[in-house]
Amino acid sequence: MSERLSDTQIEAIAETMRALGHETRLRLVDTIYSEGEKSVGELEVLTGIGQPGLSQQLAILRKAELVTTRRAAKQVYYSVAAKALETVARFLAGLANLAPAEMASQIEQPASRRAHGSAAMFAKIL
């Protein structure tokens, strides 16, 4: 058994999970994580998410502090704010009974080996 989380920790985890709980935002975070820092234009091409939806979803990720930005001239580049995801990652790893090393090996899988779909999709199949 692990130590219970404080109310503040639970609120922070819930807020992060709400931000990640949208398919488009999750796709954006996955793309940035897999591909590295990308501009808005590059993200549009890589994900197929058009404007203004892309800007709206990136704004939500920025507000949740799950991505960081860097401006170069007129371009804005996005990176994953890995530090912001540490608490959620530890919490989910604890629920899955994964040690930190096991968790890292699960996260570091190449994109081609990652599972596609969701529990909801699985449930629909049944």
What is the level-2 CATH architecture name? Orthogonal Bundle
| Strand ordering within the main sheet | 1-3-2
Kindly, what is the distance between the CA atoms of the first and last residues, rounded to a whole number of angstroms?
Answer: 32 Å
Helix content: 55-70%
CATH superfamily: Winged helix-like DNA-binding domain superfamily/Winged helix DNA-binding domain
Pfam family, one: HTH_5
Domain HTH arsR-type: 5-100
InterPro entries: ArsR-like_HTH (IPR011991), HTH_ArsR_DNA-bd_dom (IPR001845), Metal_resp_trans_reg (IPR051011), WH-like_DNA-bd_sf (IPR036388), WH_DNA-bd_sf (IPR036390)
Keywords: DNA-binding, Transcription, Transcription regulation
Please describe what this structure looks like:
With 126 residues, this protein is mostly helical. It has one domain (7-125): Arc Repressor Mutant, subunit A (Orthogonal Bundle), CATH 1.10.10.10. It is 60% helix and 11% strand. It is built from 7 helices and 3 strands. The chain has helices at residues 7-20, 23-35, 40-47, 53-63, 82-95, 100-107, 119-125, and strands spanning 38-39, 67-72, 75-80. It has a 3-stranded antiparallel β-sheet. Strand 2 (67-72) and strand 3 form a beta hairpin. Helix 1 (7-20) packs across helix 5. The model is unreliable at 109-126 (pLDDT under 50).
